[in-house]
Amino acid sequence: MGCFECCIKCLGGVPYASLVATILCFSGVALFCGCGHVALTGTVTILENHFSKITSDHAMLTDVIQLMQYVIYGIASFFFLYGIILLAEGFYTTSAVKELHSEFKTTICGRCISGMFVFLTYILGVAWLGVFGFSAVPVFLFYNMWSTCAAMRSPVANLTSVDSICVDVRQYGIIPWNATPGKACGITLSDICNTSEFYLSYHLYIVACAGAGATVIALLIYMMATTYNFAVLKFKSREDCCTKF
Fold first, then answer.
1. Rounded to whole angstroms, what are the CA distances from 31 to 21, 130, 155, 199?
2. Is the separation of the CB atoms in 41 and 205 below 8 Å?
3. Judging by beta carbons within 10 Å of its beta carbon (0-12, 13-18, 19+), is residue 146 exposed, middle or buried?
4. 13-22, 66-75, 95-104, 233-242 — most confident range
5. Residue 155 in 3-state DSSP?
6. For the chain, what percentages of helix, strand and coil (3-state, to nearest 5) are there?
């Protein structure tokens, strides 16, 4: 066998679907965790400086955001390891499916592990659909504030009533109704939209939402690849049992 044939044989054992899913998963999780962490910090700064100047009014929200940031650390660590494990499992099942080694035989333990990854990836996919939906909530809130500021700056806006245009974050349940001031109107609202914290947090939330969507797509690719490989391994095991007799 020449060098070219050997290279072709080796490339045939690469699980391209799992490889693409791993790259997409790492990228999506990195965007979601990194951008989400910074955006949450910027959100706390905006609330403290403009909407809730009494610390006790948003103490619970601050604790929840800190907890979410710790959860982000755990998500990043878990998916880094899980992506590597799924990629290794992809190499294992691809070698078995394509029979790169003539002496390769599937075992019950190997099939059970593959089935476990199919089930776990399905559960994670459903969970990340929820994460994707949840990550769209701050994008919606920031978009409402940004569109309100854009409406005030519009040439067709009635500048005589600009002070009557307000954004009340208390209606979203972010801070309690007794928080002061709780809302921003007119020039104050426009100044908030021009701050670097607002601009950065808004765009980081968008990127974090896109990262969550990329992770969902990666998990879907994982599910298709692992399900196919598990089905072929199961069929191969039945074929091996039939050839024994």
1. 15, 17, 36, 17
2. no
3. middle
4. 66-75
5. coil
6. 80, 5, 15
